[in-house]
C-alpha cells in the first residue's frame, strides 16, 4: 500500500473513532434544550442517549463478522453513510420520536463504522510493532472524542442550539466519505457465517430490558407495554442462549463465561458504565435544570471528568505491569467509590467547585479501570477467543451504561428536587463501585492464560 494511502487510512480510522465516541457523551449537554424546545419528558431524554447505546451494543457483537463479510471498506463507507444521514435527521427532527428513532439508526452506523475502521488501519501496518501503535492511536482518538463531547457540545449549543450538535457530524462525515472513496484501498473479504438469529434475539433482549427500565416509572410495571417488554426480555435471553449453543459460528461463544477472569471483567465493566453514564446523565440535568447553568459552562465543568480519562488511559498499562491488574482494579474502584460519595456530599453545597474537585478522581480512576478491565477480559481467554471476548466485553459495558441512564432518570426525581435526587444517584453509583470492588476481590485468584502488556481504552 502506498505511503500516502496508508496515512489516509489511518487518519480516517482516527476520525471514525473520534466521531463514534463523541456522540456517546456530546448529547448530554443538550438535554435541557431538548426538554424545552421539543417538550421532552424525562423518559424521552433517557431514550435520546439510550437509543444510540442500544443499537450500538446490539450490533457490536456481530460487527466484526459483518465487516469481514462485506469487506472492511464497504462496511466503513456504509457505516459512515448511515451515521451521517441519521445525524442529519437528528439535526432536523421536529419531535422527540423522530430524534430518538434517528439516534437508533445512528448507533447502528457507529457499530459498523468502528470495527471496520480498526481493520483498515491495522491492515496498513507494516509490522507487529506498527500494528500495536495504530491500535493505541485508534483507542486514544476514541478517548479524546469521549472527553471532548461535553465541551464541544456545550460550545455548539452556545453558538447555535442543540441541532448544531448533530449537524457537526455532516461537516465531518461528508468530507470523510469523499476522502475514503478516493484513497481507501479495499481489504480482502473473508466470508464468515453471520449469526443473524443471534443478533435478532440479542437486540430483543437488550431492547426489552432498556424499554422496561425507562418506561416503567411513568407507565407503571403493570402497563401492557411494560409487561410486553419484560416478556420480550425473557424470551430474547432464552432464545439467544439456545441459539448460541446450537449454531456453528455463534455470535457470542457462551464458553467465554466459563472463564472466571472474563466473567468478572465483564461484570466489572457493566458496573463501571452503570455508575459513570448514570452520573453523567443525572449531573447534566442537575447543572442545567437545577442550577440553571448554560450548556457551555456545563461542558467546561465536565472537563476534569472526561479529560482525565485519556490521561489515565496512558498510565494504566505501566501501572498494571508494576502492581498487577488486580491491584490496579482494587485501587481504582476504591478511589472511585470514595470520589462518588464525595460528589454526593459536594452536590449539597451552594457553590459548584466542590463538585468539580470530586470529578477529578472520578475521571482519573475511570481512566485507569477501563483499559485494565479490557486487558483482563482478553488475557483470561485463549487467543482464538480474543475477538469475541473484546466484542462481548464492550457490549457488556454499553448495556451497563444504558441501564445506568434508565435507572438514574427516575432516581433523580422531579425538576423541583433535583438536588436531593442527585445525592441518591451518586450514592447508588458508589454502591455499584463497591460491588465492582467485591467482584475484583472474588476474581483475584483467576489464572491468566495470555500475558497482555497492552491495554485498550
From TrEMBL:
- What membrane topology does the annotation report for this chain? Multi-pass membrane protein
- Give the domain of life: Bacteria
Segments passing through the bilayer: 9-31, 51-70, 77-98, 104-123, 135-158, 164-182, 194-214, 226-243, 264-287, 293-315, 327-345, 351-370, 418-442
- Spell out the CDD domains in the cross-references: MFS_MMR_MDR_like (cd17321)
Q: What is its main location?
A: membrane
- Keyword Transmembrane in record: yes
Q: Which UniProt keywords apply?
A: Membrane, Transmembrane, Transmembrane helix, Transport
Where is the protein situated, by its record's location annotation?
Answer: Cell membrane
- Which residue intervals define the domain Major facilitator superfamily (MFS) profile in the entry? 9-447
Which protein is depicted?
A: DHA2 family methylenomycin A resistance protein-like MFS transporter
Q: Which organism is it from?
A: Kribbella pratensis
Q: Taxonomically, what lineage is the organism?
A: Bacteria, Bacillati, Actinomycetota, Actinomycetes, Propionibacteriales
